[in-house]
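In the current project phase, the collection of sequences with tokenised folds has grown. One resulting record follows, to show the layout:
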Amino acid sequence: MKLFFRPINFLLLAGNLLLASNSSVGMTSAQASSQADSRSPFETLSQIVQADSIRIKDEWEGYGPFSPISAFWDLHRSQDGFSGTATFRAHTHYSLYFSRPDLEGKVLTDTVDILVPAGNVTSFLSRLSRVRLFKGEYVPSIPRIASYPSISIEIEVGPETITFFTRSQGKEHIPWGVTIQGETYVVVSSDVPAGALEQHLEPHLKREVLKELLNTVK
């Protein structure tokens, strides 16, 4: 998994359709909603493989030539996979202004088209669906100062929204927090979401565009 200012850092939004057959079941929308409310958190989590849209958001703030830095991906299921855009943004840090007063208040931005093959997204979501959850309060690991990542992954499953999030430092940003049906859980695995994200999605996210954007300031 890449981080800003090391190799770099992640809102994943996905939707799952609930279909009811009026002819065979006759289920009303109210009945469908009631049934969805009764699902267990783990049942909801297991259905994220049916996601049809994805948003990934990755932010970093701290001491460096650029801060804050953000990357945002907005992807939707298409014929060839999951397509959409990536938007990168970097603010010049005040530490640059002494040598480069012309950069004060400057914000670098760029947007590019993205396509992630369907198989990659399916593999990613499948690994998330099997993550081991521990009930409890999320407490980020922040052993040092001047480096503050903020990553969130939101997954919509029918009427439910599952949110993976972390503000922890380190390569895998352990621990992660997860909210399902208003309850908070903790994830301590280096494999999910960090490892799955790096293996299946990272090669297609075009982070090199952000690197090139930062290199425009000399």
